[in-house]
Design brief:
Blueprint lengths: L17 E6 L20 H13 L3 E7 L39 E5 L21 H8 L3 E7 L1 H14 L3 E10 L7 H11 L3 E3 L1 H7 L3
Parallel strand pairs: 1-2, 1-4, 2-3, 4-5, 5-6
Helix pairs in contact: 3-4
Bound molecules: zinc ion.
Length: about 210
């Protein structure tokens, strides 16, 4: 259904050094899913608005999916923290139907290694095994805008890695939601990554004063 386009083949004409990263907006992380984040699905229409803005600017859009094998140390049954979720090729691992990803989006998968949690999108790779960092370098992306699920895990670790790799990071605070195993986990996550240098952004920052 999605056309997976590749840098260097002429498929992608990037006019921007910015990219949107949509993290794990999947059925299992939304209400009714195996690991449903309260109101997780409510960010989908907001992310769709960001997607339209980034498309218009010919910026690259990445979308990750948690993509686990049946047996992984990530799951409680095998010593991990989590109930079974986002098993490869299941409905739970599918993108939430309200998320409208364009055909230009570059799809990345993570969590395939049964020995690791792989929260960060920087552990994700495309169908050919090309990782996010390689994609960003190929495309000359210097700044990444992060949305998705969940604030206190995959969004947080993706942001930390992005900062570590020298990227400017914007967290789309109206387009993330957290698990909150402890009530303040998401708040603490945002605090930690903003202390490290990430900036908080909301839709109106881009639609009004943020035009460049
Ligand atoms: Zn997972």
């Amino acid at each position: 259904m999605f056309v997976l386009q590749r840098a260097g083949s002429g498929d992608i004409r990037v006019k921007s050094k910015k990219a949107l990263l949509v993290v794990d907006v999947q059925n299992d992380f939304c209400p009714g899913g195996a690991l449903g984040v309260p109101a997780g699905h409510k960010i989908a229409p907001v992310i769709n608005k960001y997607i339209r803005i980034f498309l218009k600017k010919k910026s690259v859009i990445f979308a990750t999916r948690d993509w686990h094998p049946v047996r992984t140390k990530h799951f409680k049954d095998f010593g991990g923290l989590w109930p079974v979720h986002c098993i490869q090729n299941t409905l739970g691992a599918a993108f939430h139907p309200e998320l409208k990803l364009p055909k230009e989006a570059i799809l990345l998968y993570k969590g395939m290694n049964p020995d690791k949690d792989s929260y960060s999108a920087f552990h994700a790779e495309d169908e050919s095994g090309v990782g996010l960092l390689v994609w960003l370098k190929r495309l000359g992306i210097k700044e990444i805008y992060i949305a998705g699920l969940a604030t206190d895990y995959c969004v947080k670790y993706s942001a930390i890695d992005a900062i570590k790799y020298g990227l400017k990071v914007k967290i789309l605070i109206d387009a993330v939601q957290g698990v909150n195993l402890k009530p303040d986990d998401s708040k603490d996550a945002i605090e930690k990554i903003t202390k490290m240098g990430a900036k908080k952004i909301k839709l109106t920052d881009l639609t009004t004063k943020g035009r460049k």
